[in-house]
Amino acid sequence: MPMPTYEYACSQCGHEFEVFQSFSDAALTQCPECEGAIQKVYSNVGVVFKGSGFYKTDSRSAKKPATPASTTPAVTTPAAASTSSTSPAPKSD
After folding, report:
1. 6 - beta bridge partners?
2. What is the distance between the alpha carbons of residues 47 and 22, in angstroms, rounded to a whole number?
3. How many domains are there within the chain?
4. Is position 25 within any domain?
5. How far is the first Cα of the chain from the last one, in angstroms, to the nearest whole number?
6. Has residue 71 been placed in a domain?
C-alpha cells in the first residue's frame, strides 16, 4: 500500500528531506543531521481537475426569463378535484 510522502525542513541547519509515513504515524520533531527542531513543509497539491463537472456551477442550467404571474392562466382540472373528494371503492374478494 503506498504511503504519503511528507516534506520536512530543519529550522537550524536548513536541511530538507522527505519521509514516507502513515497517516497514523506521529510527526517527526528532530532533524537527522543536527538534531535541531524541524517542521513540516506544506506545498501545493499535485492534482489539477480540468474539464466540466468539478464545480457547483457546472450543473446549473441556463437561466430562463421569468414570466409575470398575472399573465400565466390558472389551470384547474376537474378530474383532479373529483378524485380527492371521493372515497376509494371497497374491494371485493
Report:
1. 19
2. 20
3. 1
4. yes
5. 64
6. no
Element housing 16 (H / E) = strand 16-20
Nearest Cα residue to 7 out of 47, 61, 46: 46
Q: Which amino acid is at 44?
A: N
CA angle 80, 83, 85 (to 5 degrees): 115
In a domain, 27, yes or no: yes
Residue at 49 is within a domain: no
Residue found by looking up cell 500500500 in the block: 1
Task: Tell me the per-residue pLDDT of 34-60, one tens digit each, with 9 for 90 and over.
Answer: 999 999 998 877 777 777 666 666 666
CB contact at 8 A, 31 and 57: no
Q: What is the pLDDT of residue 70?
A: 58
The sign of the CA dihedral 63, 67, 72, 74 is positive
Q: What is the pTM of this model?
A: 0.45
What percent of the chain lies above the pLDDT cut of 70? 53
Cα-only R_g, the chain: 33
Higher pLDDT, 49 or 86: 49
